[in-house]
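Put briefly, the fold is written as integer tokens. The lines below illustrate.
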Amino acid sequence: MDNSSSIVVITDSSAHFPAGESALLGGIQIVPYQIIMGGRAYREGIDLDAVEGLRMMATHHYLPTVQPPTTAEYQAVFDRAARQYEAIVVLTASREINHSWANARAAAQPLLGHCKIDVIDSGTLSTAQALLVLMAARWVGSGVPFDELVRRLRGAVERTYSVYYVETTEYLAHNGIMSDSHSILGSMLAIKPFITLENGRLHVTEKVRTRIQAVERLVEYATEFTDLETGVIVQHRAGHVETTRMLHDRLTVEFPDRVFPTMVYGVSLAALIGMDATGLVILERDTLGKD
């Protein structure tokens, strides 16, 4: 395919991709966040991968500072892309989470009239954002025109859902997702919160006391979807995690014909919800359109 008449998909490193998607990643450009830990700056996904970043947070008790790409950084990427591609579609983390979307919008302004470009707020982050980016890459590969691609992506944003079970609340309190008083009370009573993304924001929606209860609630969440297209389990470290194993076993019973891959979430999400969360990300099938 001649790049001069094609579309490029660009995202920020808040998008944490499931393993096994490397074939599509070659057609996606990722603009990294800056992760500040221990007085050093790391480019997420380049200088610092998810496993090493979470290990550093746990070992040194770092509280990372996460800085999304600046307008200038986006401009440099967009300018290069505009010389190679006819059109650019950009999917960023939720505008309610950080300034990535606003910075990308500002960077796109000088290109308007010279190159087709659309900056889309994914309304989410991490793996949910990555699923949207991968969907965009597949559509580009199948020849979907730019305007139709944008329409489909904006519809898909409304069908993407995330829920996280969080075992400790330090990061939630630090980031204002949970009040200090509720964090302290929850720790005293051994109550663990569930976090969902609603209207682009992270919210505490309910609480449980045990991991078994947490797993059952995650399974209940999955079964609420009548036409599930993709489901991914996210966890806080590589390898065997007991909560994830129980969740896999229960989902296999409820969805015997479906595979739920497991992946480690990245530092930019860990900086918001902590290093000991288990999550479930759902992409619901489009039953009305032609996706």
Summary: The first strand starts at residue 7 and ends at 12. The chain has a mean pLDDT of 91. The CA atoms of residues 10 and 116 lie 13 Å apart.
